[in-house]
Amino acid sequence: LNYYSDIVREPLIAVSLIGFMIYTNWKLTLFCLIFAPVFVLIIKQVSKSLRKYGYRSQEAMDHLTSAVKENLDGVKIIQSFSLETEMKNRFKKRNDHYVEQRKTIIKREEFVSPLNEFFASILVAIICFYQISLISSGESSTGEFIGFIMAAGLLQKPIKKIQTAFVKIQQNIV
Questions:
Q1: Average pLDDT over residues 39-59
Q2: What's the CA gap between 71 and 88, in Å, rounded?
Q3: CA angle 164, 46, 3 (to 5 degrees)
Q4: Around 34, how many Cα atoms within 13 Å sit in the side-chain half-sphere?
């Protein structure tokens, strides 16, 4: 439920911050917004991947629970034919498959944040170099630069929350 409220609240915060950035320096804001599709593309690819692996994980869990049910329902038959080792190996194989699917999902979830932060760091470095050139030529002031950087920095939290909400909602859909 918390993720659904983030999808409503955080875009409003992001739009307000972008409005302030446009007011402060529209050229620099436009440059920043050119990078937005890179972030959206990353989120889209990871969401698609999470859906795919989520279905696989769900199937693996289904196989695992069916193995447990078979073992519990047929415990007397398993014991009478001395099939404990075979059933244990079957369960271990299905459990290992499920754990691998879950690990893949967790890796993909954890991969998104550092990748976005890497691209954001490159963007901030470019913005700093550009803004320093504007300040040195007298076209901008240090106060405008600090305000722009603060708004851009504050923009990262709503974007990250929106991204996390979309990832969690994709998991819940599966």
A1: 83
A2: 9
A3: 20
A4: 9
Strand locations in 5-135 (E): none
- Whether the CB-CB separation of 168 and 13 falls below 8 Å is answered with no
d(CA 98, CA 58): 8
Contacts within 8 Å (CB) and 24+ apart, 157-163: 158/10, 158/11, 158/13, 158/14, 158/17, 159/10, 159/14, 159/39, 159/116, 160/113, 160/116, 161/6, 161/10, 162/6, 162/7, 162/10, 162/11, 162/14, 163/39, 163/43, 163/112, 163/113, 163/116
Quick: pLDDT tens for 76-108: 888 888 899 999 999 999 999 999 999 998 888
Q: Six-digit token pair at 124?
A: 């901030």
Closest CA to 157 of 10, 24, 4: 10
Q: What is the pLDDT of residues 100-121, one digit of tens each?
A: 999 998 888 788 778 778 887 8
Tokens of 132: 């320093």
